[in-house]
Automatic annotation (TrEMBL):
It comes from the Eukaryota. It comes from Stylosanthes scabra. Residues 2-155 form the Bet v I/Major latex protein domain. Belongs to the MLP family. The lineage of its organism: Eukaryota, Viridiplantae, Streptophyta, Embryophyta, Tracheophyta. This is Bet v I/Major latex protein domain-containing protein. InterPro entries: Bet_v_I/MLP (IPR000916), MLP-like (IPR052006), START-like_dom_sf (IPR023393).
């Protein structure tokens, strides 16, 4: 049984790609007010929520269980609307040696109605073969994407 792997989910959104990406680059502190499964988010280290030298602590609902973890941003590519995250500590470390999350907003140029898509990929390395593949995180991201999209559509200026 493989201890490392990669899983992904792609979800269509109705919001403009730039506006959606902006939530993840400049408004991440607001996730706990937008996403039902984000119970708490707080700045753990650093001076702001969006720099690579800051760490956030999250309390999330994954697979029906409340978990905690820390997250930091490894890099942001504004041009490609992508962000790389590292998840660690809390309930992640006992199960995974490595847990990287890649997020991207993809503009659909073939579509005139502004529909874009988002993609979350998780690259992980399990501590042992008894650890489950983290499909619950894909479900979490799927629901969060839809909630952010609805939030943006309901608050369009």
């Amino acid at each position: 049984m493989a201890l490392s792997g990669k899983i992904s989910i792609e979800v269509m959104i109705q919001s403009p790609a730039a506006k959606f990406f902006n939530v993840f680059t400049n408004q991440v502190y607001n996730f706990q007010n937008i996403c039902e499964r984000v119970h708490q988010g707080k700045l753990h280290e650093g001076d702001d929520w969006h720099s690579t030298d800051s760490a956030k602590q999250w309390t999330l609902l994954i697979d029906g269980k409340i978990i905690t973890l820390k997250e930091n941003i490894e890099g942001v590519d504004e041009e490609n609307k992508s962000i790389t995250y590292n998840f660690f500590d809390g309930d992640i470390s006992p199960q995974y040696k490595a847990f990287k999350v890649f997020f991207q907003v993809i503009e659909n140029e073939k579509n005139d109605n502004g529909i874009a898509s988002t993609k979350f990929s998780i690259e992980y390395e399990k501590n042992n073969e008894n650890v489950e593949t983290p499909y619950g995180f894909l479900e979490f991201f799927d629901k969060a994407i839809k909630e952010v999209d609805v939030h943006l559509l309901n608050n369009a200026a």
